[in-house]
Design brief:
By secondary structure, the chain is of the alpha/beta class. 36% of the residues lie in helices and 24% in strands. It is built from 11 helices and 16 strands. The strands form 2 sheets. Strands 1, 2, 3, 4, 5, 6, 7 and 16 form an 8-stranded mixed β-sheet that branches. Strands 10-9-8-11-12-15-13-14 form an 8-stranded parallel β-sheet. The radius of gyration is 20 Å and the shape is globular. Bound molecules: NADPH dihydro-nicotinamide-adenine-dinucleotide phosphate. NADPH dihydro-nicotinamide-adenine-dinucleotide phosphate (NDP) is lined by residues 74, 79, 85-86, 110, 114, 137-142, 162-164, 167, 202-205, 209, 224-225, 227, 299-301.
């Protein structure tokens, strides 16, 4: 009998099979391959629900021999519930018979791969000895971003700000338990950011929470939260003064309010995007030019990141003979 089984990978298994440091290297490979033209990567389809705040997104990609898609809901209001604000699956297919090889929890893949890409951008753009980190936002991405920043820079000081102080305090307790770190909870975003060498914005804000006037020379910013054309986390000054890199130029032109709103104000034009992270890896563009440069990575999240993660998770689970396998279908009816 041919093997027609599909692997089901729940949240806890993703966390075990996709460790942050391995995921950072995996994202480097995926984004470099994308920069070399080895991916099929259309813009994601986003259906806006009800008032437009909630969304249902379909994100397909082909990366080399890996075929897949993430299908996900984004409900920012889940922030106040036990549910993740990003829920869905990553589907992974083979390119021989088109078999569905794996169905993987998307909340955990999204949490890890997004932070891993920020980790990669930080590895490429931040000052080598950057040790002072500020995080704006205290949700799921704040947690994985702390782990990613610790993986790529010798972080010794961490400050956090979010709207909800209890959430920040809970984050600080978690960080102490997990990494033995003391995290300073700040009452304003400005007091979290002043003097920081790395800043991660991971909020669901639609208006700026980070102002350029607070950013020191030499800082590197990962702007992760806003992923639609009408929302932004950074004010215009923060973008104008920075050397700007993106995960994908085409996506930024359609989906990045952090870029599109300053462009609409005519503070910048398209040339302000200096390149993609993948082009930094292939050596096509140069990143930081001096210790005083402010660098900015605008992350939107790409389906190639999910598909690369899915392939990695599937191959590891298969090698370990772990996981739950089901026969979903896909075989022809047997001949009589
Ligand atoms: P969570 O729901 O876990 O956390 C959201 C955080 O944003 C909370 O700290 C919340 O504050 C804060 N927040 C919500 N609304 C506002 C507001 N109006 N002003 C300031 N802060 C606000 O979300 P995640 O951590 O999973 O995701 C964070 C952001 O990153 C989201 O916007 C998400 O869509 C985006 N994202 C981007 C990805 C990418 O690839 N670039 C991938 C995944 C997510 P409080 O503590 O007060 O509730």
């Amino acid at each position: 009998m041919p093997d027609a089984r599909t692997l089901i990978v729940p949240h806890a298994d993703v966390e075990r099979l996709l460790p942050m440091s391995a995921c950072i290297d995996l994202m480097a490979d995926a984004l470099a391959a994308t920069a070399r033209g080895e991916a099929l990567l259309p813009l994601r389809q986003v259906l806006r629900l009800r008032g437009g705040r909630d969304a249902f997104a379909v994100m397909p990609a082909v990366l080399g021999s890996a075929i897949g898609a993430k299908i996900i809901t984004v409900f920012p209001g889940n922030d106040a519930t036990p549910f993740d604000s990003h829920i869905g699956v990553v589907l992974y297919f083979d390119d021989t018979n088109g078999r569905l090889l794996a169905i993987i929890d998307a909340s955990s893949v999204t949490a890890i791969r997004t932070a891993a890409v920020s980790g990669l951008a930080t590895r490429l753009l931040a000052l080598p000895n950057a040790s002072d980190l500020a995080i704006l936002g205290a949700g799921v991405q704040a947690m994985t971003h702390l782990e990613a920043m610790l993986a790529v820079r010798p972080i010794t000081r961490v400050r956090i700000w979010s709207r909800g102080m209890p959430r920040c305090a809970a984050f600080a307790r978690w960080a102490h338990r997990r990494f033995g770190l003391t995290v300073q909870v700040c009452e304003t975003p400005e007091s979290a950011v002043r003097g920081a060498q790395i800043v991660c914005t991971v909020t669901a804000a639609r208006e700026p929470v980070l102002h350029g006037a607070w950013l020191s020379p030499g800082v590197h910013v990962n702007a992760v939260g806003a992923s639609v054309a009408t929302a932004r986390e950074l004010d215009t000054h923060a973008v104008v003064q920075s050397r700007l890199f993106v995960d994908r130029r085409e996506s930024a032109m359609h989906e990045a309010g952090d870029f599109l709103i300053p462009r609409q104000e005519e503070a910048i034009d398209n040339t302000h995007i200096l390149g993609e992270i993948g082009a930094l890896l292939t050596g096509e563009v140069r990143g930081r030019q001096s210790d005083d440069d402010r660098t900015l990575f605008k992350s939107l999240g790409l389906a190639v990141e999910d598909v690369a993660s899915a392939r990695f998770i599937y191959e590891r689970a298969r090698a370990e003979q772990s996981g739950t396998w089901i026969e979903l279908g896909g075989l022809r009816p047997a001949d009589e």
